[in-house]
Amino acid sequence: MLSLLPFAFLVLCFELLPLLVMVLESFRGDGGVGWGLEQYTKALTSKYYLQGLSNSFFISLCASAVGIVVALFAAYSITRFSQRMRDFLLMLSNMTSNFSGVPLAFAYIIILGSNGLFTLLFKQLGWTTLASIDLFSWFGLVCVYVYFQIPLAILLLYPTYYGIHQQWRESAALLGASTVQFWRYIGLPVILPGVVGTFSILFANAMGAYATAYALVGGNYNLIAIRIGSLVAGDVAARPELAGALAVILAITMVTAMLINEWMMRRVRRELG
Amino acid sequence: MSYVQIDRLSKRFKETTVLNQVSLSIEKGELITLLGPSGCGKSTLLRCIAGLTEVEDGGKIVVGDTNITQLAPKAREVGMVFQSYALFPNMNVYGNICFGLKMKGVKKEEYKERVERIIDLVDLRGRENSYPHQLSGGQQQRVALARSLVVEPKILLLDEPLSALDAKIRKSLQTEIRRIQQELSITTVFVTHDQEEALTVSDRIFVMDHGNIVQIGTPKEIYAHPASEFVARFIGNYNVLKRAEMVQLVGEIVMAGDAFAIRPEVISLVPRGNEASAQSKNGWSVESVVRSMTLKGNVIRYEVETNHQKMQVDVLNTSDNHWIRVGTPVFMRIPAEECIPLQ
Ligand SMILES: Nc1ncnc2c1ncn2[C@@H]1O[C@H](COP(=O)(O)OP(=O)(O)OP(=O)(O)O)[C@@H](O)[C@H]1O
Ligand SMILES: [Mg+2]
Questions:
Q1: Of A93, A209, B202, B326, which is least surrounded by CB within 10 A?
Q2: Chosen from B68, B71, B90, B151 to mutate, greatest number of chain A CBs within 10 A
Q3: Per-residue pLDDT, A273
Q4: Does residue B26 share a domain with residue B63?
């Protein structure tokens, strides 16, 4: 028991304490004076902040959805490769899933920015639709998020495929099921909990992504994480209390999303059973 | 012509030959066992019949009038039960059993009765809504059996279906599988490496060794007349002696054969000093010493040593039996007609 003490201390100091301070802060008035729901009222009645929240929400939803669908196929193919290839691909996923923030935004700007390599190439070729992609928009953000969502989802999903026994496929095949039917009735239902869990993590990951978004669009696109950032770090208008309230709202959104996921999963499972 | 005909079936994995030109035929409604030591190719043969493993060119599998060698597994009308049961974990008992019928596009109204009948047949009434993880091993095995049987396959393949179960349930399921098989009179291939199991359930036994079928016969034939040293050693606990060893043991012999098999239970032990009763008209009495004694339930197994060999002797464990102590000098009485010559 005693040996757990340092760990408990660590959790308390570095995980729970900051959270507690932030939550408390969110109930203070401006400048840390008085207590109340003032910050929440402000946050929830401001069109600006609500827009940031909904932008974040939909971008995260899209990026996570694209990420999970691509990863479903990618992770499965990884399980079918040879041991060496598999190790290589997993290492690559591991690396790219951590490749985010300023370097990632920069890489995208070089390639697809207004003077990016490919943008210029597309212009030369006369492919105007492709050349006119606006990287500093909703679409650009989704693209950049998807970049690190896919490898993360692969890493999380890949082990769940090993829960599918070869003999289930063989039994299903002998009982007359096609490959599609196998996945429809057995494969997917079995990995579903893993897929839903992964989706939750992707969603939370995207909602909280700050550095990548900030590096790409700066203040030009209204995302809740960027709003919180500027309220904390803004030299002129630092308002940590309002930032706290927004952060709490963000956290509640994420937790709610996870709960809904969980609930849906239970329903789906019951229907399949 | 037999119902199932397998002709010169071969299978290689890289360099190793796992099935070597195997040919066999099975009658309709018959239960045969493939019996052999681990790694001899039993599962591979089964998987080839099911179409889960491809066979080398030249082999042929015919069921009824259909050559199924090149057909996909789903087109073969073959049912298979795996050692691990392979039940679908996300479906309950009823769902598992219906699966094949659903996949074949049978309507619910049509299969309902059939499913009910099979549930009764395998004695799973009341467990329809349980999930596989809520069932015992024996129950899971019965679900697997029902799932394969309900689609009425032409052949049923069972790959060591009972090896994961404890001895008692195993015994009762052996009889149950046999009862169900006979009730449906379904042609069945049963794989096992347990000779007792094979002797219990089969119409005929096919003994396999290193990708070859080395002997075919009814349980009685196989047990009483093993054709080779391998079969004799594998079936029952025969004492197997090379010709030279036999000569060392009993002196010159007139019988033909490269080796001889003697069942442990045909030998009797007579304590020395009773020489009179040790004289046998048609057989040999060999001076020896009891080296060990093991109680095996209904029999007592003695290990008896002569000047040259060690032999196993089984004596029925009856209440009037006085156990012979280790170290006791005895005569080992071997009836000549019980020595089975082997090639
Ligand atoms: N997919 C495979 N690739 C390579 N070798 C294989 C493969 N499947 C089986 N083998 C080899 O073929 C041989 C026979 O295997 P098989 O599974 O048929 O044996 P078995 O008689 O069923 O044994 P057991 O009683 O242990 O189940 C073994 O030596 C095994 O290593
Ligand atoms: Mg096997």
A1: B326
A2: B90
A3: 47
A4: yes
CB contact under 8 A, A170 and B80: yes
Interface touch B90/A175, C-beta < 8 Å: no
Nearest CB partner across the interface for A186, out of B74, B79, B90: B90
Q: How far is the CA of B8 from the centre of ligand 1 (A)?
A: 19
Asked whether A202 and A151 are in contact (CB, 8 A), the reply is: no
ipTM of the complex as predicted:
0.83
Burial degree of B97 (CB within 10 A; 0-12, 13-18, 19+)? buried
How far is residue B224's CA from residue B262's CA, in Å, rounded to a whole number? 10
Ligand 2 centroid–CA B40 distance in Å is 8
**Does residue A4 lie in a domain region?**
no
Q: Is residue A17 part of a domain?
A: no
pLDDT score of A157 more than 70? yes
What pLDDT was estimated at residue B296? 83
Contact B208, B197 (CB under 8 A): no
| A261 compared with A69, residue with greater pLDDT | A69
Distance from CA of B74 to the nearest CA of A (A): 5
Q: Do B25 and B94 fall into the same domain?
A: yes
Same domain, B215 and B121: yes
pTM of the model: 0.81
Question: Which CATH number belongs to the domain containing residue A204 in this structure?
Answer: 1.10.3720.10
Say which CATH number the domain at B152 has. Answer: 3.40.50.300
Higher pLDDT, A127 or B191: B191
Number of domains in chain A: 1
Q: Is A76 among the domain residues?
A: yes
Distance (Å) from CA B46 to ligand 2 centroid = 9
- A273 neighbourhood in chain B, CB within 8 Å: 90-92, 95, 131
Residue B275: its pLDDT value, please? 62
Q: What is the pLDDT of residue B218?
A: 95
Which of the residues in chain B have pLDDT under 50?
none
- What's the rounded Cα separation, in Å, for the pair A232 and B111? 67
Closest CA to A28 of A42, A39, A13, A16: A39
Q: Contact, B244 vs B277, CB < 8 A?
A: no
Q: Is residue A266 very low, low, confident or very high in pLDDT (cuts 50, 70, 90)?
A: confident
B54 interfacial to chain A (CB closer than 8 Å): no
| Enclosing domain of residue B215 | 4-234
pLDDT digits (tens, 9 = 90+) for A102-117: 888 888 888 888 788 8
Q: A168 to chain B nearest CA, in Å?
A: 5
Among B177, B204, B234, which residue terminates a domain? B234
Cite the DSSP H helix spans in A81-137.
83-97, 102-112, 117-125, 128-131
- Asked if the C-beta of B52 comes within 8 angstroms of chain A's C-beta atoms, the answer is yes
How far is the CA of B212 from the CAs of A264, B34, B45, B216, in angstroms? 55, 11, 10, 11
Which residue, of B234, B258, B283, is where some domain finishes?
B234
Range of the domain at A102: 39-272
Same domain, yes or no, for B165 and B286? Answer: no
Q: How many CB atoms lie within 10 A of CB A4?
A: 9
Nearest CA in chain B to A181: B103
